[in-house]
């Protein structure tokens, strides 16, 4: 009876300690990069307002921070969590799957991103600057592009095993979607996969379809990552091999 009564508390304490440890291993960047990206959006909107920009333009900039800057920051940070771990060889020799360890660290990043996005959205709404969809649907502004871009970043990081190549590829994709937005939203076959529909086009016809397609394809990318991580040697760089 005594042993049974202590099992749950000890297991819970161990879980909390494990998550705290993984949060420290993930580093300050995992907790800081999401709010910093949104602060950059706020600063840009403030500068635009001081420069004489109209309310609509300022609102678009604030929404862009949530839909475009946040996913980019999370994706770039995720790449560093995958590629820059000096203990991977040791981790891969342990009974616990490294995929679980990596998943917990990415979970710390995801939690920081979600909390930052929710606080940012609430702040804009309370200040009267929210220009997105209904508040209950606001997670659809940032969650689908964040899942999609981050999953792709992790997938490329595992396959390419290079921080430079992966971050360059993600940055090029992100920039291309910004530069060629009119062309991408102008074709039926590219519109459902366009990442920044809310801030570029709005929440009219096709917006919900776009969000659902991004979410589903993002989850497929996540599934591909999980399958690849069943082959642990893919996490090692050429030098580590």
From TrEMBL:
Membrane is among the record's keywords: yes
This protein's UniProt keywords: Membrane, Transmembrane, Transmembrane helix
TM helices/strands, residue ranges: 26-48, 68-87, 108-127, 147-175, 212-229
Name of protein: ABC transporter permease
């Amino acid at each position: 009876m005594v042993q049974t009564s202590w099992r749950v508390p000890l297991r819970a304490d161990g879980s909390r300690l494990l998550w705290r440890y993984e949060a420290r291993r993930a580093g300050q960047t995992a907790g800081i990069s999401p709010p910093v990206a949104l602060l950059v959006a706020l600063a840009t909107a403030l500068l635009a307002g001081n420069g004489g920009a109209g309310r609509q333009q300022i609102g678009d900039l604030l929404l862009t921070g949530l839909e475009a800057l946040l996913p980019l920051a999370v994706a770039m940070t995720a790449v560093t969590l995958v590629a820059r771990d000096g203990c991977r060889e040791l981790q891969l020799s342990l009974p616990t799957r490294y995929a679980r360890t990596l998943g917990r660290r990415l979970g710390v990043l995801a939690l920081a991103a979600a909390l930052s996005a929710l606080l940012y959205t609430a702040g804009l709404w309370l200040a009267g600057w929210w220009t997105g969809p209904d508040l209950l649907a606001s997670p659809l502004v940032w969650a689908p592009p964040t899942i999609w871009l981050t999953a792709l970043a992790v997938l490329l990081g595992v396959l390419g095993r290079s921080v430079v190549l992966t971050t360059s590829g993600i940055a090029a994709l992100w920039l291309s979607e910004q530069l060629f937005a009119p062309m991408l939203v102008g074709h039926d076959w590219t519109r459902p996969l366009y990442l920044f529909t809310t801030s570029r086009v709005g929440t009219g016809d096709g917006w919900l379809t776009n969000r659902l397609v991004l979410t589903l394809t993002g989850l497929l990318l996540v599934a591909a990552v999980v399958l690849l991580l069943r082959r642990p040697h893919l996490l090692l760089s050429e030098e580590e091999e």
